[in-house]
């Protein structure tokens, strides 16, 4: 895999200004990023034209582009599969707004997860709500020239799509042919799935990877967990993976105290798997 496939992100930088964050990503050699839609950077509850213009100016000043926009959607009061129709509808409207932000930023992808239904209702009901919501969001994004990414969640985060088999069934149930797949190594490990299994199901539609360590859960910086990350990265290389990868170190919140150190440790650990040359 090539070093240019590895892109930056603002994960763990939520307690620092956006300009400070982007300057550090640039200093680490990144020219693309996954933009996590978190306050105070660019969230879906405080978006306005002035803030969006500021974000674009910061990116332009530092020579960074946005590969995908990832609105916070696990902890927020946003849930596209909510059993409460008012919350569900408001969440879909926010994501349609997010698609417009993607278009404004020139991002290729809007990042989606399946949401979560009420635990006391049937999974089939939540599944239906999620498929309907994603179809609406993706259709709006399509009119703007934006495609979607879809990532499964862990069982503590969702009761809809939590492993590769469920993701494949869900993916085949949604409309259109422009939604690609995210492989999160921690979600993969906790579900008992494998890199090879993802590529058997989705092939080149695996477009983005979150490279994280865990025990197996935890979303840790590389080296802080017990996952066989060297093996996972070797498997990605063997599959001829040509998409993008980034780190997602959340942990227990301590990485946010010194995000640059956490990211540099990830970079150092992953470096042997990437070539700097354009041609291998």
TrEMBL record:
Pfam families xrefs: AP_endonuc_2
SUPFAM superfamilies in alphabetical order: Xylose isomerase-like
Record's keyword terms, sorted: Isomerase
A GO MF term: isomerase activity
Entry superkingdom: Bacteria
Occurrences of domain Xylose isomerase-like TIM barrel (ranges): 23-258
PANTHER family reported for this sequence: HYDROXYPYRUVATE ISOMERASE (PTHR12110), INOSOSE DEHYDRATASE (PTHR12110:SF41)
Protein name: Sugar phosphate isomerase/epimerase
Species for this entry: Mesorhizobium retamae
Lineage: Bacteria, Pseudomonadati, Pseudomonadota, Alphaproteobacteria, Hyphomicrobiales
């Amino acid at each position: 895999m090539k070093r240019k496939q590895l892109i930056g992100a603002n994960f763990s930088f939520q307690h620092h200004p956006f300009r400070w964050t982007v300057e550090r990503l640039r200093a680490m050699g990144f020219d693309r990023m996954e933009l996590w839609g978190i306050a105070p950077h660019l969230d879906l509850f405080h978006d306005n034209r002035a803030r969006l213009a500021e974000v674009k100016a910061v990116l332009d000043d530092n020579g960074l582009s946005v590969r995908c926009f990832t609105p916070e959607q696990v902890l927020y009061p946003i849930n596209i599969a909510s059993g409460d129709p008012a919350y569900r509808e408001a969440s879909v409207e926010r994501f349609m707004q997010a698609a417009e932000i993607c278009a404004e930023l020139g991002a290729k992808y809007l990042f989606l997860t399946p949401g979560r239904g009420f635990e006391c209702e049937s999974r089939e009901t939540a599944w239906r709500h999620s498929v309907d919501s994603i179809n609406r969001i993706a259709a709006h994004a399509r009119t703007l020239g934006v495609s979607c990414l879809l990532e499964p969640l862990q069982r503590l985060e969702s009761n809809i799509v939590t492993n590769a088999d469920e993701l494949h069934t869900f993916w085949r149930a949604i409309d259109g042919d422009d939604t690609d797949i995210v492989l999160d190594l921690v979600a993969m490990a906790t579900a008992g799935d494998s890199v090879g299994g993802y590529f058997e199901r989705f092939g080149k539609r695996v477009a983005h990877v979150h490279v994280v360590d865990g025990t197996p859960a935890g979303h840790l910086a590389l080296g802080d967990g017990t996952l066989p990350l060297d093996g996972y990265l070797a498997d990605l290389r063997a599959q001829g993976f040509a998409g993008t990868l980034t780190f997602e170190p959340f942990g227990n919140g301590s990485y946010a105290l010194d995000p640059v150190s956490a990211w540099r440790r990830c970079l150092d650990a992953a470096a042997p798997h990437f070539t700097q040359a354009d041609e291998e």
